[in-house]
Amino acid sequence: MESVYTQGIWVAETLQQQTKSLEQCWLVITHLGDPKAAFLLVFPFTYFLDKRAGVAVLWIAAISEWLNLVFKWMLFGERPFWWIGESHLYVSMPPRIHQFPSTCETGPGSPSGHAMVTAAVWWVVASSLGSFLYSRTRSVLISSAPFLLYVALLVAVGTSRIFILAHFPHQVIAGCITGFILGIVLSGRVPEGRPLLFYFSFSFSLLLSALMVNVGLQQIGIDLSWSIALAKKWCSHAEWIRLDTAPFSSLTRDCGALLGLGLAEYWKPNGWSLPWAPRALSLAFSSMGLYHVNRLPLPVQPQGLFYGLFFIKFVLVPQIVMVFVPGLVHLFTRKKKQD
């Protein structure tokens, strides 16, 4: 693997040198490709265009990120920003590269979670939009446009991850391929009309199975905190190490979002039926609500409290988008019509 890693460092160095003027663009793209964005940005936007597609986005985001966590525990992928120092190959001639606030993620690197979740989630958006365009125009050329944009998005997100030294190219490619397959497989298996017990059981099963994998690997002598230690050792700024990038943060996010989806469908089966103007208003208010929920500061000590509050935060996400905000918009727009 050493030759693969050295080639990856060369690619990252070339990208940083040749596209330095696009630095801010790459940083924005890497944030848009963050798995968290699938829950906070893609889900509400898609839901108010098409309810089933919105539920599919949330469902697939949670499953694909959970699988990504398990794959990372199994594959032990290095990350460029720490491998450079650990390899001792660049002592005499270090590469001309630098880190960014988004670089210092603490989980293993393979496969890329950004690429994998983006590929899975945006497949739902691209395929739904492509089907809609084809039903209206009967044009293969026009209906293929969303899929071309889908490929362009994957290339952009993958390139941004290499640029900031978060991943090697092969990790990005592996994430894109895995996410693409998951998007196709899971988009046809979206739970509809399931009881709350299903979501509760599924969320608990994901949490329990991930913990069992974690404990099992530790029992055979594998220290799963190895990547956290390396990230802290080689990150150029200690404040760039954040607990919300730790593996258990993604696990609690996924389980919380799935339980929240079940609660939302329990409180309001089939959601609120709104015309286009109230939907746009609901999207605007939901986005504002999610922005403030995401910004809520959480105590990092003790870590159990942090993960518990992080879980609750993402339980609230489907409630805000599917129940609270559209319910209030429905209430006020109905009163206005009656007046």
UniProtKB/TrEMBL annotation:
Gene Ontology molecular function: glucose-6-phosphatase activity
Binding residues for substrate: R79, R161
EC number: 3.1.3.9
Residues annotated as domain Phosphatidic acid phosphatase type 2/haloperoxidase: 53-187
UniProt-annotated location(s): Endoplasmic reticulum membrane
Root EC class: hydrolase
Annotated catalytic residues: H114, H167
Transmembrane stretches, start-end: 53-75, 115-135, 147-166, 172-190, 197-217, 305-332
Gene Ontology biological process terms in this record: gluconeogenesis; glucose 6-phosphate metabolic process
Gene3D superfamilies given in the database record: Phosphatidic acid phosphatase type 2/haloperoxidase
Membrane topology label: Multi-pass membrane protein
Keyword Transmembrane recorded: yes
Predominant location category: endoplasmic reticulum
GO CC terms, sorted: endoplasmic reticulum membrane
One Pfam family linked to the record: PAP2
Keywords noted in UniProt: Endoplasmic reticulum, Gluconeogenesis, Hydrolase, Membrane, Transmembrane, Transmembrane helix
Pathway recorded for this protein: Carbohydrate biosynthesis; gluconeogenesis
Keyword Membrane (UniProt): yes
Name recorded for this polypeptide: Glucose-6-phosphatase
Native source organism of the sequence: Nothobranchius furzeri
Top-level taxonomy: Eukaryota, Metazoa, Chordata, Craniata, Vertebrata
